[in-house]
Design a protein that fits this description.
This protein has eleven helices and 27 strands. By secondary structure, it is of the alpha+beta class.
């Protein structure tokens, strides 16, 4: 990290940008560059120009962040971001943006191919491929678009090899010194300026200047180009050393396949915010501009809610607390709505427990009740009673609470037990309920017996580094309090 005492330069985009800018600017280290126009307007300080070593973007579902850049700088920024509050979780992507693999074609799928890269299924669209391939052949690919671990999708690949930067990028296998400019014009001023820079561009690599390049001085252009040239040199050395599938898209046979990572110039980390983290971000944003309680919580829920938040704040309306009633009335969920219960895990995966119908909404307690009719047979986890078709599961979700109970009953209303999930604070979004499961749970059997269960799973998650000690302590304390209440 050769950025001097100021630390790694970082570019931020998305609904969390104002809060993160305030949070990072208050730290000794990171410095924000290339802010968007709204960010520039909100902060009185002048932002330095520079090529970002790290790029922070909002995930497509608005729940968290992608953090991509030089490995050491990315780790530094990720550590700082995860300090926001207790329910911020982060994961390192094994298939980061820009990573180069020798992959194996597993099968064709629609308009592309499923490629195995070191045990991960990735997708190579036909438009990103150079030539036709058959099942079992190997191909050299680069990760173009990685995906968060909680989203059911595959990272997208391409066969073109690039070095991705904030101001300058490089593309392998082109003859021209400048492969592209913001105007797409070989006569653009940036194309002429490239010849004046002292940086030597490697053979068979062409510069792709990004739009930000038009706003910076010569020294910044030169530093940006030097950064990507250094990475291109490392990639070139790695590809020349490897002999399995030379070239940008040359295929081999199944016997040649290594599924190997050849080069990884960048690191991609994923950050997922929970409810307390979103409210902590509200506090950061409020130090800069008008911010209502629950700003980020509402914006994460839906784009329509985000638009309403912008309007309320622009009008200067004073709101003292999170407007649960107004939000659910306007955007959902309310009585008779269908919602999905999304069960996220600290390992990054998530799955849906199913859909249910909202049968009650209590605004004063920021609570909704969801009822599901069960159709499968078996036994209820830990409780042990029989699960039969026609049983109902009634769950009460209270916004911001670290636990939620589900009461199981038979078709005739016979109690079959209560299961209390311990989780990060519940968020009641318009079409789904979200939280991060913390493994440990509390059960109450029909005979009144109460037990805390799955402590061993929580312990294993701590040992594996998936759950921080501070989160585990909170979960254990909550479980004990819930058990005490159920026994009383």
């Amino acid at each position: 990290m050769a950025d001097g005492e100021d630390g790694p330069p970082v570019r931020i985009r998305g609904i969390y940008a104002t809060a993160l800018t305030e949070w990072l600017q208050s730290a000794d280290g990171p410095r924000v560059v290339d802010p968007s126009p709204p960010i520039s307007d909100r902060f009185e300080a002048e932002f330095p120009t520079g090529d970002p070593a790290v790029r922070i973007g909002m995930t497509a579902d608005r729940l968290g962040l992608s953090i991509t850049g030089e490995p050491v700088a990315t780790a530094t920024i990720t550590d700082r971001v995860t300090d926001i509050d207790i329910d911020t979780f982060a994961w390192t992507d094994p298939t980061p943006q820009g990573a180069i693999f020798d992959g194996r074609v597993d099968r064709t799928d629609g308009r592309g191919m499923i490629v195995d890269i070191a045990g991960t299924e990735a997708y190579l669209p036909d438009r990103n491929a150079d030539g036709d391939l058959s099942e079992g052949e190997t191909i050299r690919v680069q990760v173009r678009d990685p995906v968060p671990p909680w989203i059911e999708s595959r990272p997208h690949l391409e066969t073109a090899i690039r070095v991705l930067g904030g101001i300058a990028s490089l593309r392998r296998g082109v003859e021209a010194t400048v492969a592209d400019t913001p105007a797409g014009d070989a006569g653009h001023e940036l194309a002429r300026t490239t010849d004046l820079l002292s940086v030597s561009i490697p053979d068979r690599w062409g510069v792709e200047w990004n739009a930000a390049a038009t706003e910076v001085d010569m020294a910044t252009l030169e530093a940006a180009l030097a950064r990507v040239v250094e990475q291109a040199t490392e990639i070139e050395n790695a590809l020349e050393t490897d002999g399995s599938a030379a070239g940008s898209a040359e295929a081999g046979t199944a016997d040649d396949a290594t599924d190997a990572l050849l080069a990884q110039p960048l690191e991609t980390n994923w950050v997922r915010f929970g409810r307390e983290s979103r409210f902590a971000l509200d506090e950061q944003r409020a130090a800069v501009t008008q911010t209502i309680p629950g700003h980020h919580r509402l914006k994460a829920g839906s784009e329509d809610a985000g638009t309403a938040v912008d309007l309320v704040e622009a009008l200067g309306s004073e709101i003292d607390s999170f407007p649960f009633g107004a939000a659910t009335e306007s955007f959902g969920p309310t009585v008779d709505d269908s919602v999905r219960i999304v069960h996220s895990k600290p390992t990054g995966e998530e799955f849906a427990l199913g859909r249910g119908t909202v049968t009650d909404r209590t605004v004063s307690k920021q609570r909704i009740t969801v009822t599901r009719e069960l159709s499968s047979s078996g036994r209820y986890d830990a409780i042990g009673t029989r699960r039969e078709p026609g049983d109902t599961a009634t769950t009460r979700f209270a916004e911001g609470r670290w636990w939620y109970p589900t009461v199981y009953r038979g078709e005739s209303g016979t109690p079959k037990g209560t299961y209390v999930n311990i989780a990060t604070p519940v968020e009641v979004f318009p079409t789904e309920i979200r939280y991060m499961d913390l493994y440990i749970d509390v059960i109450k059997r029909p005979d009144g017996t109460v037990n805390i269960v799955d402590q061993d799973e929580l312990g294993a998650a701590i040992d594996a580094g998936h759950v921080p000690e501070v989160v585990a302590d909170r979960a254990t304390g909550v479980a004990q309090k819930v058990a005490d209440v159920l026994r009383s």
